[in-house]
Amino acid sequence: MSQAKILVIDDDLDLCTLLQRFLSRKGYEVMVAHSGAAGIAAAEAHEHDLAITDFRLGDMEGTQLLAHFREHHPALPVLVMTGYSDIRTAVNVMKQGALDYITKPIVPDEILLSIQRALVGPKNDTVYAAVNSSNEEIEKTKPVKPRRSNVPVDNGYIIGQSPLAQALYKQIDLVAPTNYSVIIYGESGAGKESVARMIHDRSSRKNQHFVAMDCGAISKDLANSELFGHEKGSFTGALQTKIGHFELANGGTIFLDEVANLPYDVQVSLLRVVQERRVKRIGGTKEIALDVRIIIASNERLIDACRKGKFREDLYYRFNEFSIEMPALRERREDIVLFALQFLRQTALELNREIKGFTAEVEQIFMDYPWYGNIRELKNVIKRATLLTDGPWVESKSLPFEIAYYKRLGIEEGKDLEPVEKVESLMLPPIPEIRPAANQLPTPVPDTPAIPAHTDLKSISQGAEYQMIMQVLYQTRFNKSKAAQLLGIDRKTLYNKLRIYNIK
């Protein structure tokens, strides 16, 4: 197998030299060019399997170089190198023909992975041609809407292209270099911890620890110990010394998720630590100086929690140096397929599956569904669908029933569901007891459609039962415990009926 040929274009001579040495050791044949014009000349003189170019060159912009490659070398994949401050520009440049981008400073493993991904597929791939060719005839004749994409990712978090996503990244860029405390607001599953990690990774503390703690998942008795640590023998069960989360994060960043769930008396201890930047382990006498950045997250407004007496107002004002609003996934629909493609790529790799992407129908379903569970729900759906897919494309049959048939079942997007207590109004009316006279037929139920002669009572009953179950499930947002309660049956019976009717 011949070596892949890579063209590196950058006006930074040292970087070109480093990349050439590194990639050559990895088995690639590398040619370097120190200007856009030299890169164009090299592409004309030699065939290459991949081009890697800086976004900002001395003699031209990356957009000009991409336009040339797109016109004269449409099959040549191009990776763009860019600084963090240019990420949003790079994402836009991808629309103009770039396959992916690499952030500076260059991380060897990351650039190697990007190169491997770029070289995996054949150059004449139909999807690739559709994305990178300006030929309208190719666009018209492609057998698509299924597509695959190289998704821009920042340390595991997917870079969105929606206006809301771009505003979010602007806020991250602004606050990351500072030592400000940050409050991240957003719905459950929206990616608040990922944003906290992005802030940490773009700060001067990036080489230190990032310590995350879910404040809603620990009991009152353990909260102080988890946050501040304890000494051996300080209380019953303290068999050894424990270092708390604040001490572990010293020099780096601590992330407190769902901080409003902390017990009120624990908040008192937390306030002192935040104010003094010192921590004392439970049962200890020594105070430990702290140099730690604090990022917190909540799915409710902390000022509202203060008014309810749930959260200390003085602690809130200590934290409230900068706040970020995490948009819900349904508010940034331009990014849904981007997230889905990245999750598919990750899961397919884990399962060792060859899956190219989603069908057009599946992509449309994803765009229509409201995603109440946000990114976490989408990720779990993709994992399930990948496991069930046995072909090159994920089809609607691999999706959960409530998602695949969301529109067909009549739930309108943006329309809030009725309270659970009102579900009885949606149920079918009770069947009246009928005692017909000897020579008299029963009075038909009003608005009941005519029943075909071949239909038996059992099938009619099953159809009505199925409708009722689906209505109640949607009314309770597929909370099976509530649904079973409203239907007057136990959970086991409901699960048996779901299996019978193939409701997933």
What do these coordinates show?
- The protein is an alpha/beta fold and 504 residues long.
- Among the domains are: 5-144, Response regulator (Rossmann fold, 3-Layer(aba) Sandwich), CATH 3.40.50.2300; 163-325, 3-Layer(aba) Sandwich (Rossmann fold).
- Helices cover 42% and strands 13% of the residues.
- The protein has 21 helices and 16 strands.
- It has helices at 13-25, 36-45, 62-72, 87-95, 108-120, 126-132, 136-141, 163-175, 192-201, 220-228, 245-248, 264-276, 302-307, 313-319, 336-351, 360-368, 374-388, 401-404, 457-475, 480-487, 491-500; strands at residues 5-9, 29-33, 50-54, 78-83, 100-104, 153-154, 157-158, 182-185, 210-214, 253-257, 278-280, 287-289, 293-298, 322-325, 357-358, 393-394.
- The strands form five sheets. It has a five-stranded parallel β-sheet with strand order 2-1-3-4-5, with helices on both faces.
- Helix 3 (62-72) links the parallel strand 3 (50-54) and strand 4 (78-83).
- Helix 19 (457-475) packs across helix 20 (480-487).
- The chain is flat.
- The model is unreliable at 121-151 and 411-455 (pLDDT under 50).
